[in-house]
Amino acid sequence: DAGVTQSPTHLIKTRGQQVTLRCSPKSGHDTVSWYQQALGQGPQFIFQYYEEEERQRGNFPDRFSGHQFPNYSSELNVNALLLGDSALYLCASSISGANVLTFGAGSRLTVL
Amino acid sequence: RKEVEQDPGPFNVPEGATVAFNCTYSNSASQSFFWYRQDCRKEPKLLMSVYSSGNEDGRFTAQLNRASQYISLLIRDSKLSDSATYLCAARSNDYKLSFGAGTTVTVRA
After folding, report:
1. Alpha helix ranges (H) inside B1-109
2. pLDDT at position A1
3. What's the pLDDT tens digit per position in B82-99?
4. Rounded percentage of chain A residues whose pLDDT exceeds 90
5. What pLDDT, in 10s, does the model give residues B49-89?
6. Closest to A110 in 3D by CA, of A82, A76, A80, A90
7. Do B46 and A101 touch (CB under 8 A)?
8. How wide is the angle at C-alpha A22 spanned by C-alphas A18 and A24, nearest 5°?
9. Which of A36, A37, A54 best tests the B interface by mutation, with the highest count of B CBs <10 A?
10. Which residues, other chains included, contact B94 with Cβ-Cβ below 8 Å and sequence gap of 6+?
C-alpha cells in the first residue's frame, strides 16, 4: 500500500520564478493538506483541500495556490518566488474527519 | 503568540535514562493532540495521539493537562534510536493541525 508520494524531491529555483509541487495521497485518503517547514521550525499549515475545494487556509500570501484533482491528488503552486520560500514542503493526507495525518517525504525547495 | 510552543532542547541523555519534555498550546478550544517524531531531513511520523486520561505506548507516555494547556512526553529507558526531533501538534478545528518547532533529543552511548 503506497503511502503519500511527493514530487519532485529536490529542486532549485531563482527568485521570481514559479514552482509546482505534486502530491498523491495515501490510498483511501480523500483530504490533502500542505505544510511549509523552514529549517529549524515546525511545519506551518498552508491550506487543505477536500472534494477539490480549498477548505481552510493558513497565513500564507496569495502567491501560494493549490488544486486538488478528482483522483484526490494535489498540486501546490508558488509564484514570484522569494528567498524566504526556501523550505521543505510537506504534503499530508487523511480521511476527512479523521485526526491522523500521514506525511509524504517532502519536496525540498531552494530559492537562489 | 505561537499556537504551540516547545522547549527546543537539545536534551542530551545517556542510554537507559528517562527524558521528559512539555509543549504548551494557546487555543483552549484545541480538541486533539499528538506527538510526531521527525528524523533529520525526513518527514514527521506519528508517534502517538494524546488522550485526556493520558496514554502509554511501550516506553513512551503522553499526558494532557487541559487546565494548564500543556501536553508532555516521557521516554523511559532511552535508546540510541530515540534520537530525533519530537514535534507537538494540536488540532483546533476539523482541518488545521498546528505544530510546535520541535524538541531535539540526543541519546548518547
Report:
1. none
2. 58
3. 999 999 999 977 678 999
4. 93
5. 998 888 999 999 999 999 999 999 999 999 999 999 999 99
6. A82
7. yes
8. 170
9. A37
10. A97
A67 exposure class (CB count in 10 Å sphere: 0-12, 13-18, 19+): middle
pLDDT tens-digit map of A54-83: 999 999 999 999 999 999 999 999 999 999
Q: How far is A79 from chain B (nearest CA, A)?
A: 23
* Contact (CB<8Å) A103/B93: no
**Least CB-CB distance to A97: which of B94, B98, B101?**
B94
Grid coordinates belonging to A5 = 508520494
Task: State whether B43 and A90 contact (CB < 8 Å).
Answer: yes
In DSSP notation, A42-110 reads --EEEEEEETTEEEEE-S--TTEEEEE-TTS-EEEEE-S--GGG-EEEEEEEE-TT-S--EE---EEEE
Q: Grid coordinates 528567498 are at which residue?
A: A83
Interface of A with B (CB under 8 A): 33, 35, 40-45, 48, 55-56, 58, 88, 90, 92, 97, 99-106, 108
With a cut of 70, which residues of chain A have pLDDT below it? 1-2
